[in-house]
Amino acid sequence: MTKVCRLKGHYEESMHHLGLFRAERHLCDLNGESLEPQIFIQELENLVQTDQLEAALAMIENEDTWVQSTQESGMNLELQVKKAFVFAKIHRARGDFVSCRDTLRCAVQRPDAADNIVHRCWLADAHTDLGQYREAYEVLKTSVHGQLVFKAMCKQRPGRRILTSLADVHLARGDVTAAEQVLEVLTDAHTQLSKCSVSDQLLDVRTLVSYARCSPESDVPTATRRWGKVQGAVERHPSFCAKGTIYGISALALCHVCLQAGDSAEALRHFRDAKSSLSTGSAYYWFPKLTPWTESLAGKIASLTGWNLGDSDVP
Q1: Nearest to 108, CA basis, from 74, 85, 138, 92
Q2: Which domain of life is it from (predicted)?
Q3: Digit-coded pLDDT (tens) for 191-244
Q4: From the CB of residue 290, how many other CB atoms can be counted at a distance below 10 Å?
Protein backbone atom coordinates (compact mmCIF):
# COMPACT_ATOMS: atom_id res chain seq x y z
CA MET A 1 0.00 0.00 0.00
CA THR A 2 2.80 2.45 0.89
CA LYS A 3 4.57 1.84 -2.44
CA VAL A 4 1.32 2.20 -4.39
CA CYS A 5 0.68 5.55 -2.70
CA ARG A 6 4.20 6.71 -3.53
CA LEU A 7 3.91 5.71 -7.19
CA LYS A 8 0.72 7.80 -7.35
CA GLY A 9 2.54 10.76 -5.81
CA HIS A 10 0.61 10.53 -2.53
CA TYR A 11 3.64 10.82 -0.26
CA GLU A 12 1.82 11.96 2.87
CA GLU A 13 -0.57 9.02 2.61
CA SER A 14 2.37 6.68 2.14
CA MET A 15 4.04 8.03 5.29
CA HIS A 16 0.74 7.64 7.16
CA HIS A 17 0.57 3.94 6.30
CA LEU A 18 4.20 3.50 7.32
CA GLY A 19 3.38 5.07 10.67
CA LEU A 20 0.55 2.57 11.13
CA PHE A 21 2.97 -0.28 10.42
CA ARG A 22 5.39 1.07 12.98
CA ALA A 23 2.59 1.13 15.56
CA GLU A 24 2.31 -2.66 15.29
CA ARG A 25 4.13 -4.58 17.99
CA HIS A 26 5.39 -7.43 15.77
CA LEU A 27 6.83 -6.15 12.48
CA CYS A 28 7.47 -9.44 10.67
CA ASP A 29 6.40 -10.96 7.36
CA LEU A 30 5.01 -14.47 6.93
CA ASN A 31 8.52 -15.94 6.99
CA GLY A 32 9.35 -14.27 10.28
CA GLU A 33 11.66 -11.70 8.66
CA SER A 34 11.67 -8.25 10.27
CA LEU A 35 9.84 -5.58 8.28
CA GLU A 36 11.81 -2.76 9.90
CA PRO A 37 14.42 -2.55 7.10
CA GLN A 38 11.68 -2.39 4.46
CA ILE A 39 9.88 0.38 6.33
CA PHE A 40 13.20 2.21 6.71
CA ILE A 41 13.77 2.12 2.93
CA GLN A 42 10.20 3.18 2.14
CA GLU A 43 10.57 6.18 4.46
CA LEU A 44 13.86 7.11 2.80
CA GLU A 45 12.23 6.88 -0.65
CA ASN A 46 9.45 9.25 0.42
CA LEU A 47 11.93 11.77 1.80
CA VAL A 48 14.05 11.68 -1.37
CA GLN A 49 11.01 12.03 -3.64
CA THR A 50 9.90 15.12 -1.71
CA ASP A 51 13.42 16.65 -1.75
CA GLN A 52 13.88 16.29 2.01
CA LEU A 53 17.48 15.22 1.53
CA GLU A 54 18.80 16.43 4.88
CA ALA A 55 16.10 14.46 6.70
CA ALA A 56 16.99 11.37 4.65
CA LEU A 57 20.66 11.74 5.49
CA ALA A 58 19.81 12.15 9.18
CA MET A 59 17.88 8.88 9.05
CA ILE A 60 20.83 7.13 7.43
CA GLU A 61 23.22 8.39 10.09
CA ASN A 62 20.93 7.06 12.82
CA GLU A 63 19.75 3.81 11.28
CA ASP A 64 19.43 1.60 14.35
CA THR A 65 16.45 -0.18 12.79
CA TRP A 66 18.61 -1.23 9.84
CA VAL A 67 21.52 -2.41 11.96
CA GLN A 68 19.17 -4.68 13.93
CA SER A 69 18.59 -6.78 10.82
CA THR A 70 21.98 -8.09 9.69
CA GLN A 71 21.42 -11.81 9.20
CA GLU A 72 22.37 -13.06 5.75
CA SER A 73 19.34 -14.03 3.72
CA GLY A 74 17.89 -13.48 0.26
CA MET A 75 15.54 -10.83 1.60
CA ASN A 76 18.34 -8.95 3.32
CA LEU A 77 20.42 -9.04 0.13
CA GLU A 78 17.52 -7.51 -1.77
CA LEU A 79 17.12 -4.84 0.86
CA GLN A 80 20.83 -4.03 0.83
CA VAL A 81 20.61 -3.41 -2.92
CA LYS A 82 17.49 -1.28 -2.47
CA LYS A 83 19.25 0.69 0.23
CA ALA A 84 22.19 1.32 -2.10
CA PHE A 85 19.75 2.53 -4.76
CA VAL A 86 18.24 5.08 -2.36
CA PHE A 87 21.77 6.23 -1.44
CA ALA A 88 22.47 6.69 -5.15
CA LYS A 89 19.35 8.83 -5.54
CA ILE A 90 20.51 11.10 -2.73
CA HIS A 91 23.94 11.44 -4.34
CA ARG A 92 22.34 12.33 -7.70
CA ALA A 93 19.97 14.86 -6.15
CA ARG A 94 23.02 16.62 -4.69
CA GLY A 95 24.97 16.50 -7.96
CA ASP A 96 27.54 14.00 -6.65
CA PHE A 97 27.68 11.80 -9.73
CA VAL A 98 30.90 10.04 -8.77
CA SER A 99 29.39 8.72 -5.52
CA CYS A 100 26.17 7.92 -7.37
CA ARG A 101 28.07 5.91 -9.97
CA ASP A 102 30.25 4.09 -7.46
CA THR A 103 27.29 3.18 -5.22
CA LEU A 104 25.26 1.82 -8.12
CA ARG A 105 28.19 0.00 -9.68
CA CYS A 106 28.83 -1.88 -6.44
CA ALA A 107 25.16 -2.85 -6.19
CA VAL A 108 24.71 -3.83 -9.84
CA GLN A 109 27.93 -5.85 -10.06
CA ARG A 110 27.32 -7.96 -6.97
CA PRO A 111 27.44 -11.57 -8.22
CA ASP A 112 24.54 -12.54 -5.97
CA ALA A 113 22.31 -9.58 -6.86
CA ALA A 114 19.37 -9.98 -9.23
CA ASP A 115 19.54 -7.99 -12.47
CA ASN A 116 17.56 -4.76 -12.21
CA ILE A 117 17.01 -2.70 -15.35
CA VAL A 118 16.17 0.48 -13.45
CA HIS A 119 19.38 0.29 -11.44
CA ARG A 120 21.42 -0.21 -14.62
CA CYS A 121 19.71 2.77 -16.24
CA TRP A 122 20.56 4.96 -13.26
CA LEU A 123 24.15 3.77 -13.51
CA ALA A 124 24.21 4.65 -17.21
CA ASP A 125 22.82 8.11 -16.38
CA ALA A 126 25.62 8.67 -13.86
CA HIS A 127 28.20 7.71 -16.50
CA THR A 128 26.53 10.14 -18.91
CA ASP A 129 26.74 13.00 -16.42
CA LEU A 130 30.43 12.24 -15.96
CA GLY A 131 31.05 12.27 -19.71
CA GLN A 132 31.71 8.52 -19.76
CA TYR A 133 29.55 7.78 -22.78
CA ARG A 134 31.17 4.51 -23.81
CA GLU A 135 30.70 3.16 -20.30
CA ALA A 136 27.08 4.34 -20.30
CA TYR A 137 26.37 2.51 -23.53
CA GLU A 138 28.11 -0.64 -22.27
CA VAL A 139 25.73 -0.71 -19.31
CA LEU A 140 22.69 -0.37 -21.60
CA LYS A 141 23.64 -2.38 -24.68
CA THR A 142 22.52 -5.79 -23.40
CA SER A 143 18.97 -4.42 -23.19
CA VAL A 144 18.92 -2.46 -26.46
CA HIS A 145 17.88 -4.61 -29.39
CA GLY A 146 18.06 -2.19 -32.31
CA GLN A 147 15.89 0.49 -33.81
CA LEU A 148 13.41 -1.96 -35.37
CA VAL A 149 12.15 -3.04 -31.96
CA PHE A 150 12.08 0.36 -30.25
CA LYS A 151 8.29 0.43 -30.51
CA ALA A 152 8.02 -3.03 -28.98
CA MET A 153 10.29 -1.96 -26.11
CA CYS A 154 8.07 1.06 -25.46
CA LYS A 155 5.09 -1.14 -24.60
CA GLN A 156 6.57 -1.77 -21.14
CA ARG A 157 7.97 0.76 -18.67
CA PRO A 158 11.39 -1.00 -18.38
CA GLY A 159 11.80 -0.67 -22.15
CA ARG A 160 10.86 3.01 -22.05
CA ARG A 161 13.30 3.55 -19.20
CA ILE A 162 16.17 1.96 -21.15
CA LEU A 163 15.45 4.00 -24.27
CA THR A 164 15.25 7.22 -22.24
CA SER A 165 18.77 6.67 -20.92
CA LEU A 166 19.98 5.65 -24.39
CA ALA A 167 18.58 8.83 -25.94
CA ASP A 168 20.37 10.96 -23.36
CA VAL A 169 23.66 9.17 -24.10
CA HIS A 170 23.24 10.02 -27.80
CA LEU A 171 22.30 13.62 -27.00
CA ALA A 172 25.22 14.14 -24.63
CA ARG A 173 27.61 12.77 -27.30
CA GLY A 174 26.19 15.25 -29.81
CA ASP A 175 24.53 12.61 -31.99
CA VAL A 176 21.23 14.47 -32.29
CA THR A 177 19.94 12.31 -35.16
CA ALA A 178 20.28 9.09 -33.15
CA ALA A 179 18.73 10.77 -30.10
CA GLU A 180 15.72 12.01 -32.07
CA GLN A 181 15.09 8.56 -33.55
CA VAL A 182 14.67 7.18 -30.04
CA LEU A 183 12.83 10.18 -28.62
CA GLU A 184 10.23 10.25 -31.40
CA VAL A 185 9.21 6.71 -30.52
CA LEU A 186 9.16 7.51 -26.80
CA THR A 187 7.05 10.66 -27.12
CA ASP A 188 4.50 8.77 -29.18
CA ALA A 189 4.41 5.93 -26.62
CA HIS A 190 3.83 8.31 -23.71
CA THR A 191 0.86 9.96 -25.41
CA GLN A 192 -0.84 6.56 -25.58
CA LEU A 193 -0.62 5.80 -21.86
CA SER A 194 -4.04 5.81 -20.21
CA LYS A 195 -2.69 6.00 -16.66
CA CYS A 196 0.58 7.58 -15.58
CA SER A 197 2.36 6.73 -12.35
CA VAL A 198 4.96 9.11 -10.91
CA SER A 199 7.61 7.12 -12.80
CA ASP A 200 5.68 7.48 -16.08
CA GLN A 201 5.29 11.22 -15.53
CA LEU A 202 9.01 11.62 -14.88
CA LEU A 203 9.92 9.68 -18.03
CA ASP A 204 7.40 11.66 -20.10
CA VAL A 205 8.79 15.04 -19.04
CA ARG A 206 12.39 13.87 -19.33
CA THR A 207 11.71 12.63 -22.86
CA LEU A 208 10.04 15.90 -23.87
CA VAL A 209 12.91 17.96 -22.45
CA SER A 210 15.52 15.92 -24.31
CA TYR A 211 13.45 16.09 -27.52
CA ALA A 212 13.19 19.88 -27.18
CA ARG A 213 16.94 20.13 -26.62
CA CYS A 214 17.44 18.42 -29.98
CA SER A 215 15.77 21.34 -31.79
CA PRO A 216 18.12 23.30 -34.07
CA GLU A 217 18.50 26.92 -32.94
CA SER A 218 17.53 28.08 -36.43
CA ASP A 219 14.27 26.09 -36.42
CA VAL A 220 12.17 28.47 -34.33
CA PRO A 221 8.74 26.82 -34.98
CA THR A 222 9.98 23.35 -33.96
CA ALA A 223 11.75 24.60 -30.84
CA THR A 224 8.73 26.67 -29.82
CA ARG A 225 6.39 23.74 -30.26
CA ARG A 226 8.58 21.26 -28.37
CA TRP A 227 9.31 23.53 -25.41
CA GLY A 228 5.63 24.41 -25.26
CA LYS A 229 4.86 20.71 -24.87
CA VAL A 230 7.31 20.54 -21.97
CA GLN A 231 5.46 23.32 -20.19
CA GLY A 232 2.13 21.67 -20.92
CA ALA A 233 3.37 18.38 -19.44
CA VAL A 234 4.65 19.86 -16.17
CA GLU A 235 1.38 21.73 -15.74
CA ARG A 236 -0.60 18.55 -16.47
CA HIS A 237 1.34 16.04 -14.36
CA PRO A 238 0.57 16.35 -10.62
CA SER A 239 4.01 15.06 -9.58
CA PHE A 240 5.61 18.22 -11.02
CA CYS A 241 5.35 21.75 -9.70
CA ALA A 242 3.41 23.66 -12.38
CA LYS A 243 5.77 26.66 -12.20
CA GLY A 244 8.80 24.80 -10.88
CA THR A 245 12.33 24.20 -12.13
CA ILE A 246 11.51 22.37 -15.36
CA TYR A 247 8.93 25.01 -16.27
CA GLY A 248 11.59 27.65 -15.62
CA ILE A 249 14.16 25.88 -17.79
CA SER A 250 11.65 25.62 -20.62
CA ALA A 251 10.83 29.34 -20.24
CA LEU A 252 14.55 30.12 -20.48
CA ALA A 253 14.76 28.02 -23.65
CA LEU A 254 11.75 29.83 -25.12
CA CYS A 255 13.42 33.14 -24.27
CA HIS A 256 16.42 32.12 -26.35
CA VAL A 257 14.17 30.92 -29.18
CA CYS A 258 12.43 34.30 -29.26
CA LEU A 259 15.76 36.12 -29.31
CA GLN A 260 16.75 34.00 -32.30
CA ALA A 261 13.51 35.06 -33.98
CA GLY A 262 14.12 38.74 -33.17
CA ASP A 263 11.15 39.06 -30.81
CA SER A 264 12.75 40.79 -27.82
CA ALA A 265 9.47 41.63 -26.11
CA GLU A 266 8.33 37.99 -26.02
CA ALA A 267 11.84 36.94 -25.05
CA LEU A 268 11.72 39.24 -22.04
CA ARG A 269 8.36 37.83 -20.99
CA HIS A 270 9.75 34.28 -21.04
CA PHE A 271 12.90 35.42 -19.23
CA ARG A 272 10.82 36.89 -16.42
CA ASP A 273 8.91 33.58 -16.19
CA ALA A 274 12.21 31.70 -16.03
CA LYS A 275 13.63 34.02 -13.38
CA SER A 276 10.52 33.60 -11.23
CA SER A 277 10.51 29.80 -11.50
CA LEU A 278 14.27 29.42 -11.00
CA SER A 279 14.49 31.92 -8.13
CA THR A 280 15.41 29.25 -5.56
CA GLY A 281 18.76 28.81 -7.26
CA SER A 282 18.77 25.05 -6.64
CA ALA A 283 20.22 22.95 -9.45
CA TYR A 284 18.18 20.18 -11.05
CA TYR A 285 20.22 16.99 -11.34
CA TRP A 286 17.53 14.39 -12.05
CA PHE A 287 17.94 14.63 -15.86
CA PRO A 288 21.46 13.92 -17.20
CA LYS A 289 23.44 16.94 -18.39
CA LEU A 290 20.45 19.29 -18.01
CA THR A 291 22.04 21.61 -15.43
CA PRO A 292 25.21 22.40 -17.44
CA TRP A 293 23.07 22.79 -20.57
CA THR A 294 20.85 25.28 -18.73
CA GLU A 295 23.86 27.20 -17.42
CA SER A 296 25.24 27.40 -20.97
CA LEU A 297 21.89 28.64 -22.27
CA ALA A 298 21.70 31.31 -19.56
CA GLY A 299 25.20 32.42 -20.58
CA LYS A 300 24.13 32.78 -24.22
CA ILE A 301 21.13 34.89 -23.22
CA ALA A 302 23.28 37.08 -20.98
CA SER A 303 25.79 37.68 -23.79
CA LEU A 304 22.97 38.67 -26.17
CA THR A 305 20.94 40.85 -23.80
CA GLY A 306 22.78 41.44 -20.55
CA TRP A 307 19.96 39.69 -18.68
CA ASN A 308 21.18 37.51 -15.83
CA LEU A 309 19.05 35.19 -13.70
CA GLY A 310 20.82 36.37 -10.56
CA ASP A 311 20.24 40.08 -11.16
CA SER A 312 17.50 41.94 -9.38
CA ASP A 313 17.26 44.74 -11.97
CA VAL A 314 15.97 42.84 -15.00
CA PRO A 315 13.76 45.28 -16.99
Answers
A1: 85
A2: Eukaryota
A3: 998 888 888 999 999 999 999 999 998 899 999 999 999 999 999 998 888 788
A4: 21
